[in-house]
Amino acid sequence: MGCLCPQFFNPEPMVKEKEDHEAKQYSWDKRDRLNPEVYLVDGAVSRTICRLPTSINGQQFIIQNCKSCKIFVFDHMASVTIDDCSDCCIFLGPIKGSIFIRDCSDCRVMVACQQFRTRDCRNMEIFLCCSTQPIIESSSGMKFSCFQYSYSQLEDQFQKSGLSVFNNNWSDIHDFTPVPDERNYSFLPQDTLLDCFIPPSTEDIHVEGLSVDRTKSIIPHTLGKQSRQHDESCLIIFFSQGKTSSNEVRSFMKKMSEDHADCDLVQSKEVHLQPSEAENIIGTNDYKSFVTQGPVVGLEYNGENCCKICHTVTKSQHNKRIFISQDATAAKKEIENFYNVANLQLAI
């Protein structure tokens, strides 16, 4: 009777897989190894520390236990935590997510982020660009102002972080732990000096186009929740023209600041509008074809005769994709309707 399993009786040994075969490679094995020290500043005292563009490249960053330091991070990041620091001046490039500052005192921080929060902090000066509502908790002596900074790579870093330079709610502070008859935060004077945010010029620290000049800032300097000087405001909406839209907006703001400095830019918003929303805001469907071509940028200006002034300034631009309030009465309703849509979309 024949054997059905002759291999069991094969005198030759079975061929085994080579034990010394090459180890299987996975995609995560091929990634560049990160140096943790690059993404952490810990225990520094009386030092100047700088991270140059492309050094962080969208990773998380941590600052902790520092005293009397100047810290500059000229790059975009995923998120940032700052813990137990005192008497420090800190500049941070765009943050895609959140920054959380805890147990810090007597520090100055310039930062642009999606979300901002502090806890157990005191006597802080914050120069802020925040896409959502900033939050303070168990903090006192908090002073806020609008982010004002520029360097050559900053706009590209904003884009990589998914942040719009026109969405800034720096002054819309929510205090989780208010104190009766007291206020834990206030606003800084617009002429506050920013010298500490300029690093010393050395061979190791060189950032092209660096400036704290408000007129050069990539973020429009806005009045925010501070008191308006006049009863009249005006809404200007720039409908999408592709990449040229932001240039048109900046050209308009530059003209206003140079020739009509008595008119204050209160807020700016960049949002997507549906045709029905645009019609509800401005009362006409004349801009229907423009709405579907991309986001719009809305500006609120405040000042005497600002509606008339804004009309005069835009005439030189010869742009049919710009809406401007006709008068102060119409502007009040248009501004309210625009903010209702924008704040809902931005979840403010």
Write up what this structure looks like.
It is a single chain. The chain starts with 39 loop residues before the first strand and ends with a helix. Helix 3 runs antiparallel to helix 6 (328-345). The protein has helices at residues 154-161, 244-259, 275-282, 288-291, 306-315, 328-345, and strands at residues 40-42, 48-51, 61-64, 70-73, 80-83, 89-102, 108-119, 122-130, 135-137, 140-146, 174-175, 185-187, 233-238, 264-271, 296-302, 322-324. Helices cover 18% and strands 27% of the residues. It is an alpha/beta fold and 348 residues long. The strands form two sheets. Strands 1, 2, 3, 4, 5, 6, 7, 8, 9, 10, 11 and 12 form a twelve-stranded parallel β-sheet that branches. A four-stranded antiparallel β-sheet has the order 14-15-13-16, sandwiched between helices.
